[in-house]
Specification:
Chain lengths: 138, 565
C-alpha cells in the first residue's frame, strides 16, 4: 500500500485557538463581586454550584445554582473577557431559590456563584471547569 | 476482614513445587502442572450474595498475552498508592513470589519467559467456565460487565460489536455499563441496547439537549438475591465526549455527576436496598474520590483504568474492586448482607490462565461462529517480532513505538502521535504478527491516520493538555488514559508542575534540534476526535510497515525524561 501527501487532511476543529492554560480571575470579576456585595463579608457555605469538572463543549456548559433563602444569585465566569453571566432574582413567593443555564467558557477557569440572602448576608461557591482538547481516553 | 490467603495460595502452591530457580528456564509443562483449575477456582463460599465482575474485555474473544505496566505513576494523594505501584514493589506489597503465576499475571518483569511458561490468558470460553463454576456454588450470582466490551478487535469492528454481543449474551450478564460502546455511534448503540436481555445502566448518562437522564439507560436496577435487595447503580465513563469523538453520539451527555450518584444511592436506600453496588467505568482514582464524596455505597466494581488488584481497596465504608482488562481476570466478590446492611466481604481476583482453565465448549462454538466468516483475514501472517510488543505504560509501549515508526515512515512525517489508550494484547519474541494482532491494538471506529502541519507551540499545547488529563492531582480532572505516544520527538516532563509548565526540552530526534515554537512540523497521527478526519486506516499503515520490515525489532525508547515520579 502506498500513501502520498494527497492523503493529507485538515486538522479541523482540533486547531482552534483554544486557550489551554487556566485563565485566572480577572479584575473585572472581582469588581463585579464587590459591586454586588457592596464589599460585605462573603461566607463559603449556603450556595451550591453544580458544574461539570471538564466541559464536554466549552461553548455550552450546563451549570445550576441553588441557595435556599436567597433573594438573588449572581453567576460569573471569572476568566471570560466579560465575566458577567447572569443574576437571578427571587421574589418572596418563589418556591425555590435555584436556577440553571448554559454558559460559554473561553477556556479553563473558575465559575463563581454569589448569593444575596434575605437577611442581607452573602455566600459564595466556585468550581473550576476545565476546557480541554481531549482525545486520548483509555 | 480481608485475607490475602485466597489469592496467594495459588502462588504459594506453585512456588513450593518449582522453588526459586530463577528466570528464563520455565518449562511449560512444569508451570502448568503446578497450577490447576481447581486451585484457581478454589473459594470458600461466603455470606449470601455473590458478584462476578468482568470489565474492559475490549473484544478479546480468544486467549491472548497481556503485559501489565512498568510505569504507572500516581499523583497527589495517590502517589505510591495502589494501583500506582508496579513490578517488584507490587509483588512486595501483596507478598507475591518472583516467577510465580501471580507475578506473571500481575507484574511486567521477565514477561517473555514467564509467558512461555504459563501461556496465554483470557478467552471468553475460559471466562465462561469460571462463571459457571461460581454459579455452581451460588446459582443466583450476579454477573456484572463494566463495559468496554463491544470494542477492540477485527471481528468487533466488522460486525459493529455484534460478535461480542452474541458471545456475552451466552454468558448471561445481569447488568452492564459503557464507554467505548458509544464509539459505535448512538444509532448502533440504541439498536443493540434495545435488544439486550439484561440491564443497561448509567446514572450519569444524560440527554444532552435537556440535561435530564437518558431514557434508554436506567440509573439502577434491583435484584433479589440471598434474601436481600441488591441495588446495582451504573456509572458510565464520565468523559466520553471529550476523550472520544462526541460527534458520534451527540444526543448524550455524561460527567461524573456525583451529586446525582448520591441522590440515586439515597433513592435506592429509601426503596429498601440492603446493599448498594456501583458498576463503574470511572477509573480507579476517580472511584476512590467518589467513594469519599458519596456516602452509602458498599461496593464499587471499578473499570476503565485496567488495573488488576488482588485485594479490595477500602475508602470509608466502601470497598473498591479492580478486575483488570482484556479478559485476563474475573473477580468473585461474596457478600454477607443481613439486617439491611453489608456485614462482610470476601474477594478473589481469578487470573484466567488459558492453558489451565478448560474452555466451555458451548461458548467456544459461539466464538468460532463469530470468527468463521473472517478467519482467513484474521489469521494472515503479516510479519514476525523479535521484541515483546506491549502497550501499557504512562509514556510509551513497544506496540506504540512500532505504530509511531509506521506513521513516520509510511506517512513521511517529522513527528508521530499515537493515542494513550490502555487496551491491546501483547506479543512475545518469536511470535507471528497476524492481521488480528494489528487490529487488537488499533481497531476503532475513528482510526483514520491523518497527516497535517502543526507549529512547535501547538504540539506543546497538545502535550500539556494530555499530561494534565493524567497528572492533574485531582482525580476528577483525570480522564484515565496514558500520555499521548510521540515518535520522532523527545521531551522532558515534570509531572508535578501545573499545566503549561510540565513539558520542556522538546527535541526533534532526527537532527537533535530543539523544537521551535514558531516553526511548522509535519505530524502524522491517528484516532483524532474531530469529525471529517481523512487518511488511510491506521491498521493499513501499520500492516504496510510490518510487511516492509518482515521481522520487527523495537529498540528501547529513552526519548521521554520523567521528573518527579
Amino acid at each position: 500500500m502506498e500513501f502520498s501527501r494527497r492523503d493529507t487532511f485538515a486538522l479541523g476543529a482540533g486547531a482552534v485557538a483554544l486557550t489551554m492554560l487556566p485563565i485566572s480571575a480577572s479584575a473585572a470579576a472581582e469588581d463585579a463581586i464587590a459591586e454586588f456585595t457592596g464589599g460585605a463579608e462573603v461566607a463559603n457555605t449556603g450556595v451550591t454550584l453544580t458544574a461539570p469538572e471538564i466541559a464536554e463543549n466549552g461553548n455550552t456548559v450546563p451549570i445550576s445554582v441553588d441557595a435556599p433563602g436567597a433573594t438573588a444569585i449572581m453567576v460569573l465566569a471569572a476568566g471570560n473577557p466579560t465575566p458577567g453571566v447572569a443574576t437571578f432574582n427571587f421574589g418572596p413567593l418563589a418556591a425555590a431559590q435555584s436556577a440553571s443555564t448554559r454558559i460559554r467558557l473561553a477556556g479553563t477557569q473558575d465559575v463563581i456563584a454569589v448569593a444575596k440572602m434575605a437577611d442581607g448576608s452573602f455566600a459564595q461557591a466556585s468550581s473550576t471547569v476545565k476546557v480541554t482538547i481531549g482525545g486520548c481516553g483509555g | 476482614m480481608i485475607s490475602r490467603r485466597d489469592f496467594l495460595q495459588v502462588s504459594m502452591a506453585a512456588s513450593a513445587l518449582l522453588g526459586s530457580s530463577g528466570f528464563g528456564n520455565w518449562a511449560r509443562l512444569a508451570a502448568q502442572q503446578s497450577l490447576t483449575q481447581d486451585q484457581l477456582l478454589q473459594f470458600d463460599t461466603f455470606g449470601n450474595i455473590s458478584l462476578i465482575h468482568v470489565t474492559d474485555i475490549h473484544g478479546q474473544l480468544k486467549p491472548i498475552y497481556f503485559r501489565e505496566p512498568e510505569i504507572n505513576i500516581g499523583v497527589g494523594d495517590n502517589r505510591g498508592a495502589v494501583p500506582h505501584i508496579t513490578g517488584a514493589d507490587f509483588r512486595r506489597a501483596y507478598g507475591i513470589e518472583d516467577g510465580s503465576p501471580s507475578a506473571y499475571a500481575l507484574t511486567y518483569d521477565d514477561f517473555a519467559s514467564l509467558a512461555k511458561g504459563y501461556g496465554r490468558v483470557g478467552g471468553l470460553d475460559r471466562m465462561s467456565t469460571v462463571i459457571n463454576a461460581i454459579r455452581a456454588d451460588r446459582p443466583d450470582a450476579l454477573l456484572l460487565d463494566g463495559g468496554d466490551t463491544w470494542h477492540g478487535s477485527y471481528t468487533c469492528y466488522h460486525t459493529e460489536g455484534q460478535d461480542m454481543v452474541n458471545v456475552m449474551n451466552a454468558l448471561k450478564p445481569d447488568a452492564m455499563t459503557f464507554h467505548w460502546e458509544f464509539t459505535l455511534g448512538s444509532d448502533r448503540v440504541a439498536e443493540i441496547v434495545e435488544g439486550l436481555p439484561f440491564a443497561a445502566l448509567g446514572q450519569n448518562i444524560f440527554d444532552a439537549e435537556w440535561d435530564e437522564p437518558a431514557e434508554l439507560f436506567k440509573p439502577y436496577k434491583f435484584f433479589d438475591r440471598g434474601g436481600a435487595k441488591v441495588a446495582v447503580i451504573g456509572q458510565a465513563f464520565p468523559y466520553m465526549p471529550i476523550a472520544n469523538p462526541g460527534w458520534m453520539f451527540p444526543e448524550y451527555s455524561f460527567g461524573i455527576r456525583d451529586e446525582n450518584m448520591q441522590a440515586m444511592v439515597d433513592e435506592v436506600r429509601g426503596m429498601g436496598a440492603d446493599v448498594v453496588v456501583v458498576l463503574s467505568h470511572n477509573g480507579f482514582d476517580v472511584d476512590k474520590k467518589m467513594a469519599s464524596v458519596v456516602t452509602g455505597i458498599d461496593v464499587i466494581l471499578s473499570g476503565h483504568t485496567h488495573d488488576a488488584l488482588p485485594e479490595p481497596v477500602q475508602v470509608g465504608q466502601t470497598f473498591i474492586i479492580a478486575s483488570g482488562s482484556n479478559g485476563k481476570f474475573v473477580s468473585r466478590v461474596d457478600l454477607d448482607v443481613r439486617d439491611g446492611r453489608m456485614m462482610g466481604i470476601r474477594h478473589k481476583l481469578i487470573p484466567i490462565f488459558a492453558d489451565v482453565i478448560a474452555p466451555d465448549p458451548v461458548v467456544t462454538k459461539i466464538i468460532d461462529e463469530q470468527r468463521a466468516p473472517y478467519l482467513d483475514q484474521l489469521t494472515e501472517v503479516i510479519g514476525q517480532t523479535d521484541s515483546v510488543l506491549y502497550r501499557r505504560g504512562n509514556f510509551n509501549g513497544s506496540w506504540d513505538d512500532l505504530i509511531c515508526d509506521a506513521l513516520l515512515t509510511e506517512r513521511d512525517a517529522d513527528i508521530a502521535m499515537s493515542p494513550g489508550v490502555r487496551w491491546g494484547p501483547s506479543l512475545i519474541p518469536g511470535d507471528d504478527i497476524t492481521r488480528e494482532d494489528i487490529f487488537g491494538v488499533t481497531s476503532m471506529s475513528y482510526g483514520k491516520a491523518y497527516r497535517t502541519e502543526m507549529t512547535g507551540e501547538f504540539i506543546k499545547i497538545i502535550l500539556e493538555d494530555v499530561a494534565d488529563n493524567i497528572f492533574n492531582p485531582d482525580p476528577y480532572y483525570q480522564q484515565g488514559g496514558d500520555m499521548v505516544r510521540i515518535g520522532g520527538m523527545g521531551y522532558r516532563i515534570d509531572i508535578n508542575k501545573p499545566q503549561g509548565e510540565r513539558i520542556t526540552e522538546m527535541t526533534l530526534l532526527k537532527n537533535g534540534e530543539a523544537i521551535d515554537p514558531a516553526k511548522t512540523y509535519v505530524v502524522a497521527g491517528w484516532a483524532s476526535v474531530n469529525e471529517g478526519t481523512e487518511g488511510p486506516q491506521i491498521w493499513d499503515v501499520v500492516e504496510s510497515h510490518i510487511r516492509n520490515q518482515g521481522t520487527v525489532t523495537v529498540a528501547p525508547n529513552n526519548s521521554v525524561k520523567v521528573i518527579g515520579a
